[in-house]
Amino acid sequence: MIKTNTIFAGWKYLLTLVLLVGAHIAQANTVIYEDASLVSGNDETHIGYLNKSVNLNQAGTYQATLSDFDFPSSFDMLGLTVTSSTEKMGQIWNSGSFNFNADAGKYFLGLVYKTDETLNVGMYGIKLSYLDHPGANAVPLPSALWLMLTGMMAIAGYRRKMS
């Protein structure tokens, strides 16, 4: 005789797996720009800067990520700013990320850094990703949960009838 609790325990793990896989698919992103570089600062001030223009082909939500790889040493200062021709979309200091909404068009990535005075070298990483995916429609959770519960109750009823 199979206990109903055993059936529901198995379904609990399956439901968790379905939710995790669904969340991963819904949050998938496309990398628009990525760079990892070893740089040195000015000999006197140890400060440097870089500018890069990036064309965004579609409107939507984007994520900018900045990383200090601490190689060969960490930066004394590291900052990334994303701007359009008229406004600042967001800014990060040290390491981290931020999301911003943007229309299609040209945007600018501005990086400023100050290297360690002893080594005067550091390594950073920049990644710009597109987060929205119109082609990947997620199943509404309330409907999916309702159908899953109905199916679980039907299986439990069938098992009970069989025993």
In the CATH hierarchy, what is the superfamily of the largest domain? Mitogen Ypm
| First-residue to last-residue Cα separation | 6 Å
Number of beta strands: 8
The side-by-side strand order for the widest beta sheet comes to 1-8-3-6
Please trace the helix and strand order, writing H or E for each element: HEEEEEEEEH
User: Strand share of the residues?
Assistant: 35-45%
Give the proportion of residues in helices. 25-40%
Radius of gyration: 25 Å
Note the main sheet.
4 strands, antiparallel
Which residue ranges are poorly predicted, with pLDDT under 50 across at least 5 consecutive positions? 13-27
Give me the number of helical elements. 2
Describe the structure.
- With 163 residues, the protein is α+β, with helices and mostly antiparallel strands.
- The chain has two domains: 4-25 and 138-162, no CATH class; 29-130, Mitogen Ypm (Jelly Rolls), CATH 2.60.120.510.
- The chain is built from two helices and eight strands.
- Helix 1 (4-26) runs antiparallel to helix 2 (141-162).
- The protein is elongated and about 85 Å long.
